[in-house]
Amino acid sequence: MSFIPPRPAALQDVRLRWWRFLRFAHSWMDVLTQRSYLMLLGHVRLPLLKLFIINDPVWVERILVQEPARFPKHRLMNYALEPLLGGSPFATNGDHWRRQRRMLDQAMTHARLGLVFPLMGQACAAMMAQLDTLPDGGDLDAEALMTAVTADIVFRAIFSVPLLGADAQRLYEALSRYQRLSQRALALRLFRLPGFGIERARRRQAAIIRNHIGACVDQRFDNVTTEQERSGADIVAGLRAAVDPQDGSTLTRLEVLDQVCLLFLAGHETSASALSWCMYLLGECGDLQDALREEARGISADGIPADTGGVWRMQRFNAVFKEVLRLYPPVGYFPREATQDEVIRGVPVPKGSELLVFPWLLHRHRRWWTEPDAFLPDRFLHRDALPTEAVYLPFGLGERACVGAGFAAMEAGLIMANLLSRYRISGEPQWRPGVVGRLTVRSDKGIRVRLHRLT
Ligand code: HEM
């Protein structure tokens, strides 16, 4: 029988929806019904906002790929992220976004995966050294472990220095509080309720993060001046070297800070979410772990790939990672705005409405997936059996798609190969995580696993 990992209970009584909407402050998943996984278009009537759920792949492509300028990111997304990310590309639109994205693309090309790979390896080695100090088979919070290693990796990729110890702890805690407060702020904003000090509190948390990252940027901003330094392999060097082909300008200190804050957030929060679920799922599937270990040892004697090519050759693992991203897409929905009146599947959609393209629903939609809630990684080994419609989009689609998809797949392969080379992962008996939707898809009480040293 197939393994069905946790999913939130669907709302049964739609009359409770209003109550559930208040629960939005806790998790956006609490407002989904059984029908949400069957319908092609959903309409949620809020007092002050018309909200449509887009599950029709034809419209998904139109919104994300064919006419993105007609459906920009929704202003509420900017509201949620602006204190932390400023004017970075994630939540902005138009010419401003276009310039920021041009510069970011240059920086990411500059810090090629091949150059960043050794930095990822150093972060994995630091994680393994820390695990060596823990008792064999003891309890472990996979979320905390994966947050630490992915934050360390992206920090090294940006600045070429590690993120460890008290600094790291302060940043994770601030980010976790910022997420919780922003989810609440968003719910209050949807109902135009007063902020009750939440706005000030979340800005305080954002400032902790921006001040720390700002100090790191300042060091590099002042020091990276020579041509030789500019050609350094990390992302901040790439951002300093980026030149706008349209007007020859370079990024200001504030623009670099906004970009780095985005890369830090987008570059670890999402990967940490996916890898925590990956650890949970592997902990429940011992045979699959053995198969992955064997695959990795076929590529490199110690089971740890020595270069980027080695990670790409771990086909079985790459299929597992894709299935993890299908079941638990870290970014659960993408909010867009209708800039003019539309008619979608025969339904009038007024200008200003919020349109939600929803990977969480599309990836489990009853119409396109067989056994949609089951963990079946092998489906990604047989391309012919996959849906051809635009219903699998963990990294988004079109011009706003993720710039870090390759980076994320690379670090995922390297981290899991390191872990499996020395440990067997097991789940906690009788314990199942609860799934919640916040900035990313997370467990409500961490993810508990045990690591047993291989003999
Ligand atoms: C498993 C890991 C990851 C997932 C699932 C993920 C997912 C996504 C998605 C879905 C979007 C587009 C959202 C939308 O269209 O509304 C996005 C955008 C973005 N991601 Fe990722 N991401 C991951 C890792 C990373 C990493 C490692 C980096 C950087 C090192 C990164 C940097 C970005 C940036 C900068 C954007 C904004 C692009 C723009 O708006 O132009 N992401 N990501």
List the helices and strands and how they pair.
Elements: H1 17-23, E1 41-45, E2 50-54, H2 57-66, H3 75-85, H4 94-110, H5 113-132, E3 139-141, H6 142-159, H7 165-190, H8 198-223, H9 227-230, H10 235-241, H11 253-283, H12 286-299, H13 308-312, H14 315-327, E4 334-337, E5 342-344, E6 347-349, E7 354-357, H15 359-362, H16 405-422, E8 423-427, E9 435-437, E10 441-443, E11 448-453
Parallel strand pairs: 2-7
Antiparallel strand pairs: 1-2, 3-11, 4-7, 5-6, 8-11, 9-10
Helix pairs in contact: 3-7, 4-10, 5-6, 5-16, 6-11, 7-8, 8-11, 11-14, 11-16
The chain binds protoporphyrin IX containing FE.
Explain this structure:
- The protein has helices spanning 17-23, 57-66, 75-85, 94-110, 113-132, 142-159, 165-190, 198-223, 227-230, 235-241, 253-283, 286-299, 308-312, 315-327, 359-362, 405-422; strands at residues 41-45, 50-54, 139-141, 334-337, 342-344, 347-349, 354-357, 423-427, 435-437, 441-443, 448-453.
- The strands form 4 sheets. Strands 1-2-7-4 form a 4-stranded mixed sheet.
- A hairpin with a 3-residue loop joins strand 9 and strand 10.
- The protein is α+β, with helices and mostly antiparallel strands.
- The two termini are 31 Å apart.
- The chain has one domain (74-334, 389-453): Orthogonal Bundle (Cytochrome p450), CATH 1.10.630.10.
- The longest helix is centred in the middle third of the chain and has 31 residues, at 253-283.
- Helix 5 (113-132) packs parallel to helix 16 and helix 7 crosses helix 8 (198-223).
- The chain binds protoporphyrin IX containing FE.
- Protoporphyrin IX containing FE is lined by residues 89-90, 101, 154, 262-263, 266-267, 270-271, 274, 330-331, 334, 394-396, 400-404, 407-408.
